[in-house]
Amino acid sequence: MRFLAYLFNTSPRRRPEGWLARPLTLYCAAVSAWVLSAATWMRVDSLAMTIIFLSLILVPSFLLVAAAPGSDPRRPSAIDWGLSAAAGASALYFIVNIPATAERISLLSPLSWHQFAFAAIMILLTLEITRRTVGMFLMLLVMSFIAYNLLGHHLTGTLGHGYISLQHFVDINVYTSDGLFGTPVRVAATYAFLFVLFGTILEHARGGDFFFGLSAALTGRSPGGPAKVAVVSSALFGTMSGSPTSDVVATGSITIPMMKKLGYRPEMAAGTEVAASTGGSLLPPVMGSAAFIMAEVTGLDYLAICFAAIVPAAVYYLGIYVQVHMRSKTLGLEPLAPEQVPRLRAVMISGWPYLIPLLGMTAMLVMHFSPTLTAAVASGLVWLVALMRPSTRLGLGKTIDVLSETTIRMIGVTGACAAAGLVVGGITMTGLASKFSVLAFGLVGENDFLVLLLSAAVTIILGLGMPTPSAYVLAAVLVAPTLVNDLGMPLMAVHMFILYYAVLSAMTPPVAVASFAAAAIAQANPIRISLEAMQLAVTAFIMPFAFIANPGVLQPWASAGDAAEALAVILGCFAIAIGAETARRTDRLWGWAGVAAGLCLIMPGPEPKILGLAMAAAVLVRMRRRRTAMAVS
């Protein structure tokens, strides 16, 4: 555990005091204002935007994120100041030389000594901020890919590649749009940044209070009310925050103590919150910003991705809700106290304006406005909603604080995306993505199911301790080509498959970042919390295989056949959720029969589905008879 802590521990965020606090706040607010301007009305080349964004955001990063857990939480060290100064010098160099960078021909125009030196500084700064914000694991992973790029020509066999000089590596990774300044950072500088801005404004405007109150009014009176409030409120908050960890901290700080107070085990309380919060990154429209990267990587329409995610996300949360309900009934867990349940009418009267930004966002996406403009307009709508009440009004000072906080929140995501860009550039140079198929087929043979199983495992490993966007990018570049090109699987289904496992890595041991965040609130073991969350989200680990076996679940409106596939998958996931909970608490044999029925329903072809329906019907009859017998006795 100590070694894992060393690999995945992140450094504490600083809140500088004294003379440094205000200049940093104003600088970070200015970065947010520039991103908002560049993404909406300014005409900035995409390469120039990524160069400016990454360069500017690195400058305050080393002052705001400490070097190690034991560092001074208020005052930066001399090393921090030195790294910030190096970031500032690099920012000035790259921004001034944007025209030269755009015009030069990579590999044909040799790098000058200063081009090479500043590129090397930028790579080293990216690795260091990645270590501080995401952990040593990702930094070592990136360094291993760099080593493979530079030394892989010494390998023989499938993994070997041609000689790549240090100049070649630096040129492609820094002076083109294939590496450091590539798609991941471009998405961080546009869609992701603006949706984080939207979530930050909504949080400061106390929109979270409205969604929590709405959840309590809808579910608080039923058995297991606090757990159901956690599920619904985390879904509503998570679709905007897009981060399992921040969702756990924001909603779990209320729901976990509430559940513990009413008799829930700490592990169950935290596990429920983790399972519910993790799913927020699968729920449209934000989807942890990964949907925007998916649109860039695949060429698929962003709105089509959102529509494809609706049914699976709904099944994810309904499955958790059903299991929470069954477990609460079995354990005799009480609903919320009457005085803690607000009236729905009162909640809607006081908070209905918070629905305006969400409805506006949905309408703009349906009308095919760009996600960038949609997020910007939605942020403006939230700001206007906040003006309607004196208690939530965001004046100039608070607006500056919101803009500054958005930049600070983006430091970790940007560092991880830049690191992912280095890996993507390296994979492109070495052709490693095309070699993954050879390795996969060599390990498991040409069995589609086993290749998918291996792909899921690789994606979860790549996502350990990592933000969803960077985990998805790495898996999309390394794993997706094999599944799409070599096995002929549908493009949308494959990338949704990868996205799900990239998201689920947030709750998967040994490094479940969402579980560790919940552990601090619940005062419980994070591994046990992870296991509890995985049991509640069991359908989510199986559903991605249904995307491949039954692509109709991603577009049930396309045809009658697709609708039938989607219905079978929905019934199958419910059978798995109910069966898993039944096997865990009451009737082990019939519970596992329900799980088997669910697995049959999500298999390809009509025969397994007919068998699954028959088995599910038998299990349902058995459960009803058992319930009747218990009621009579």
UniProtKB/TrEMBL annotation:
Please report a single Pfam family linked to this protein: DctM
Organism, by scientific name, is: Mangrovicoccus algicola
- GO cellular component, as recorded: plasma membrane
Question: What is the stated purpose of this protein?
Answer: Part of the tripartite ATP-independent periplasmic (TRAP) transport system.
Q: Which residues form the TRAP C4-dicarboxylate transport system permease DctM subunit domain?
A: 121-552
**Could you tell me which InterPro entries the record lists for this protein?**
DctM, TRAP_DctM-Dct_fused
Per UniProt, subcellular location reads as: Cell inner membrane
Q: Which membrane topology describes this protein?
A: Multi-pass membrane protein
Asked whether the keyword Membrane is assigned, the reply is yes
Task: Specify the protein name.
Answer: TRAP transporter fused permease subunit
